[in-house]
Design brief:
With about 500 residues, this protein is of the alpha/beta class. It has helices spanning about 5-15, 30-35, 60-65, 80-95, 130-140, 160-175, 180-195, 200-215, 220-225, 235-245, 265-275, 280-290, 315-320, 355-370, 375-385, 390-410, 470-475; strands spanning about 50-55, 70-75, 100, 115-120, 145-155, 250-255, 295-300, 320-325, 330, 340-345, 350-355, 375, 410-415, 485-490, 495-500. The chain folds into 3 domains: about 5-155 and about 235-310, Rossmann fold, CATH 3.40.50; about 160-225, no CATH class; about 315-415 and about 465-500, no CATH class. Helix content is about 40%, strand content about 15%. The strands form 3 sheets. The protein has a 7-stranded mixed sheet, with helices on both faces. Strands 9-10-11-15-14 form a 5-stranded antiparallel sheet, with helices on one face. A 3-stranded antiparallel sheet has the order 12-8-13. A hairpin with a 3-residue loop joins strand 10 (about 340-345) and strand 11. Helix 6 (about 160-175) crosses helix 7, helix 6 (about 160-175) packs across helix 8 (about 200-215) and helix 11 runs antiparallel to helix 12 (about 280-290).
Length: about 500
């Protein structure tokens, strides 16, 4: 990267720090489970070597290091200000297994060694072309043979419209002296356009979709997303093609429910299955157009592993997962173990309708355990006990239900158990890395210590309701047709999802 541009970006990142906190979609435990679901075995996170490109103050990496003392983590970021904050937090936490460096990503080479997991969240689209090339080079050359790389980035077609908004914001806000002035003038530009645009214009429609984000998102997100010097979206197929030139292969999306065409309804599924001829890449590019997608989180592996990827879920692998979920009856009552149809609310704003007693038993068990996970075999045994049948009699129905819920996105899953206390004692036990944190609040300028177990292990702590890089579910403009429903004829299990336009 040219020295002048490096200096410009460094000053910008120092002046406008990223919010540094955990991103659950990039958690190594999640990446491990995704790879396993689609046919690949990866090193256990508890003993893994991890590299994060663009680590900010370590908010995403420090909690992982605290959870897994046997792992080794390295974070790299251009901002010495943010790295210094993270180094202070690591020192206070007493974590010997993590290091943060102020370093130019493009200068990483083979001397850094190989890593089982490489994470690059919220960086790729926001750096110039040579650094994008370096990111993919690192993901290829510094990735262990059985490793997984995660890269997030803005995508077309959804960002075609947002570029209009970004250009307008830069026109008025860009020349200002400070980030605060830039954002203030940029917002004023959008307010002017919103009031003045013709009701039937493309600009008016674009503003209707974007202004809720501008009004609700925090300043850090808006400055980086709309006013940062670099923001270069691409099409999904273009990104994968670039990765392939580096010897990488597409594995899956960090939110796998977006990959399954049956989630988009019969009118979409049947034509696309005929059109795409079994190509997962082509299918997903078509779906990006359908939902006007703006953001992706892609998992990559070495091309030598591509032949082992399986997009048809294998029952043996589902049986080996730990799963978790929430299920609340729509009427506020309890799930009754009878044949009465009961609509339920699940995670991700999903609505599922349960009809069979064994399905309701599974939902009750998962809901009672959440946020802890349960192994599939234990679910089968416990559900059988609740409905008074032998395990072999309910095995098929439970396994089919789990597959349906995984495809739908109504379950969270891991390869190893997710621990959670059944109750909070009078003397709760905190992670060792957090025990020194309370004394910081008495200091005038404490370094940030990202939370590691203060919230659900599945949940992000991002405060922005519209941040693409913080939550994919919030990033897609219209992730699904407005309303759809689906029913598995084999089990009588039905699901539906409703979203606002």
């Amino acid at each position: 990267m040219p020295d002048s541009l490096t200096s410009t970006l460094t000053r910008y990142y120092d002046a406008v720090p990223y919010d540094s906190h955990p991103f659950p979609q990039s958690a190594m435990e999640h990446l491990e489970a995704l790879a396993f679901l689609f046919g690949l075995d990866t090193p256990p996170p508890a003993e893994a070597r991890v590299l994060e490109l663009g680590c900010a103050a370590g908010g995403n990496l420090i909690p992982f290091a605290a959870r897994h003392p046997g792992s080794r983590s390295l974070g790299v970021d251009l901002s010495s200000v943010q790295v210094a904050q993270g180094v202070a937090a690591i020192a206070h936490a007493g974590l010997p297994n993590i290091e943060l460096r102020a370093f130019d990503i493009s200068e990483i080479d083979a001397s850094f060694g190989q890593f089982d997991y490489i994470v690059c969240h919220g960086v790729y689209s926001w750096v110039p072309g040579p650094v994008q090339d370096a990111i993919l080079r690192i993901c290829a050359e510094n990735l262990a043979p059985n490793g997984v790389a995660y890269v997030s980035y803005n995508v077309y077609p959804g960002w075609k419209a947002r570029e209009i908004v970004r250009d307008a914001m830069i026109l008025r806000g860009g020349p200002r002296d400070t980030p605060e002035e830039q954002l203030s003038y940029a917002r004023g530009m959008l307010e002017f356009l919103e009031q003045s645009a013709r009701a039937d214009s493309v600009l008016k429609k674009t503003l209707e979709e974007t202004m809720p984000i501008v009004r609700s998102a925090n300043s850090s997100y808006l400055l980086h997303e709309f006013l940062e010097p670099c923001n270069a979206p691409c099409y999904f197929k273009e990104f994968v093609a670039r990765a392939e030139t580096r010897g990488l292969a597409y594995l899956c999306d960090a939110e796998p429910s977006t990959m399954f065409v049956q989630n988009y309804g019969d009118k979409v599924r049947d034509p696309l299955l005929r059109e795409c001829g079994g190509s997962q890449l082509l299918m997903e590019q078509y779906l990006d157009f359908l939902v006007n997608r703006t953001f992706r989180q892609t998992l990559l592996v070495g091309q030598a592993r591509a032949r082992d990827i399986r997009y048809r879920l294998e029952p043996a692998r589902i049986r080996a997962l730990e799963v978790a979920g929430l299920f609340a009856a729509e009427d506020g009552g309890v799930l009754t173990l009878d044949a009465r149809e009961q609509p339920c609310h699940a995670i991700r704003n999903l609505k599922v309708t349960l009809r069979l007693p064994v399905h309701k038993a599974v939902a009750r068990l998962l809901d009672a355990a959440y946020p802890a996970s349960m192994p599939a075999q234990a679910l089968i045994a416990e559900a059988a006990r609740l409905v008074g049948q032998p395990p072999e009699a309910v095995d098929g129905a439970v396994m089919t239900m789990l597959e349906e819920l995984l495809i739908l996105g109504a379950l969270r899953f891991r390869r190893t158990p997710v621990p959670a206390a059944a109750s909070v004692s009078g003397l709760p036990h905190a992670l060792p890395a957090l025990r020194s944190a309370p004394r910081w609040r008495h200091r005038p300028a404490p370094p940030p210590m990202p939370a590691t177990n203060g919230t659900s292990p599945w949940r992000s702590r991002c405060s922005s309701a519209a941040c693409c890089r913080c939550s994919t579910a919030r990033a897609r403009t219209k992730p699904w047709p407005s309303t759809w429903s689906r029913k598995c004829r084999a089990t009588g299990f039905a699901s539906s999802r409703t979203t606002s336009a």
